[in-house]
Amino acid sequence: MPTAVVDLVSAPTSPEPLTRLPFPPVTKAHILHCSYHHWHPLYRTITPKARLIPLTQPFLEYLRADGIVLPSSAPPSPILDTDADSGVFTSDTEEESDDESPDPSLAWPEIHSSIKDTIAVLGDSVVPKLNWSAPKDATWISATNSMECTTPNDVYLLLKSSDFITHDLEQAFDGCESDSATDADGTVATQLTPEPSIPYHLILRKTIPAIIPSLEFRCFVRRRRLLCICQRDLNHYEFLPSLIPLLKSLITGFFEQKLQETFPDENFVFDVYVPQPRETGRVWLVDVNPWAIRTDPLLFSWMEILGMPEPEPEIGNQREESAGEGFVRVYVDSEGRATGTEVFRGQDQQIEDDDIDESDQDEESSDDDDVEDLDVGPEFRMVKRDDPEAYSFNTPQYSAHKLPKDVVDAGADGQAGLAEFMGRWRDIVSAQEREEEDM
Asked: Full-prediction pTM beyond 0.70?
């Protein structure tokens, strides 16, 4: 057997430290492929019921404008001139019309009407989102503390209050490399291709009653291989460990049949919902996210995902391809420690565990939280009983995006309300400074 010779002199002593995550270039085309309006027509039959409303420029300007001014929820009623004792109050229409902000929906009546009609068609309750993001960070301003909307004004309030929606409108291509033309000789031309236009859509999805957050999962795909899966809801659920083999099989089969060869890009992230894994096994596609740092890796880190080896092919295929030669598979845990080996010699299979004591195998296999899933396929990660993520009760989700109620109330009155609020705030700060000087 020939021996390997290692050149210790010329070999580098240590790798260069990484200054950025080793992502492949994120293109604007990839971002557009992950837009709901692009992928929904391809996968309409495997997504929850939704309707898409193309947005006009006046409505986009309304979303970008400062302040929160909502349309009138009822048509204007005629002014009645009656006595004060009758209980019907009269008002000076000219003075009130000068003080009140105009109805913003007058600039986009077709959008307002479409939203109202769509809510009625989808059962009088919808969940809104824009091309990429849902206003999850703005649920604090909703009366129901959720994204459920029953009127057009509920939709407008969430969209106008969300930083996630602002990101879709202003920074959709943030972090993307500029597309450039390439000459016939392979050199990159200096003239850049024009900025692609974004066909913005409002997506209204039918509210799913009694949704089960524990059965929502995020899946990471690299080079058209399902790399890993994790929970979307960062809480520990006692029943999940027993469902992992079934969930892994359902999600993997769903990916291979529906997404693997049909999505335009080979790297992407998708979210699924499996409401009844034991009864129906139905998997719903909820969203598609870019393969980029802006996508939350949840229970993984992007450095871990980018360096993760791709799952092994099926054992049966390996046996056929490796018949006569044999091969050895080494299992490692999440920290890179070897936990065992599996030796294949033609049609014969032998398992050898050099690092695990045989007397301890039965005891260790009974503890779901201490044993890693060694099945071939994507890694499935969940929040375990002793994980810190399971007990993060001190900081509410998206708390960085919240505002004091006084600021929200002032913003509802437009620029005049904000100016008045700032004046009162300055008076309070000045009074506190004078009190400190007198002490």
From this structure: no
**Whole-number pLDDT of residue 221:** 97
- Cα distance between residue 106 and residue 72, in whole Å: 10
Dihedral sign, CA of 169, 57, 407, 437?
Answer: positive
- Per-residue pLDDT averaged across 47-59, rounded? 96
- For residue 328, what are its two tokens? 């050895």
Report strand pairing: 379-381 vs 225-231.
parallel
Look at 395 and 45; give whichever has higher pLDDT. 45
Give tens-digit pLDDT for 172-231.
Answer: 998 888 665 444 454 544 445 567 889 999 999 999 888 899 999 999 999 999 999 999
Q: How far apart are the first and last CA of the chain?
A: 89
Cα–Cα distance for residue pair 126/73, rounded to 1 Å: 18
Hey, what amino acid is at 271? D
Element (H, E) at 63: helix 57-64
Distances (CA, A) of 391 to 139, 211, 395: 22, 22, 10
Contact 73/153 with Cβ under 8 angstroms? yes
Q: pLDDT-based confidence at 310, cuts 50/70/90?
A: confident
Percent of the chain with pLDDT over 90: 48
Separation of alpha carbons 45 and 47, rounded Å:
6
DSSP string, 132-181: S---GGGGGGSTTSSS-BSSHHHHHHHHHH-HHHHHHHH-TTTTPPPPEE
- Beta carbons of 380 and 247 less than 8 angstroms apart: yes
How far apart are the C-alpha atoms of 161 and 50, rounded to whole Å?
22
According to the 3-state scheme, what is the secondary structure of 250-296?
HHHHHHHHHHCCCCCCCCEEEEEECCCCCCCCCCEEEEEECCCCCCC
Residues with Cβ within 8 Å of residue 333, at least 6 apart in sequence: 339, 372
Question: Which is nearest to 114 in space by CA: 81, 67, 155?
Answer: 155
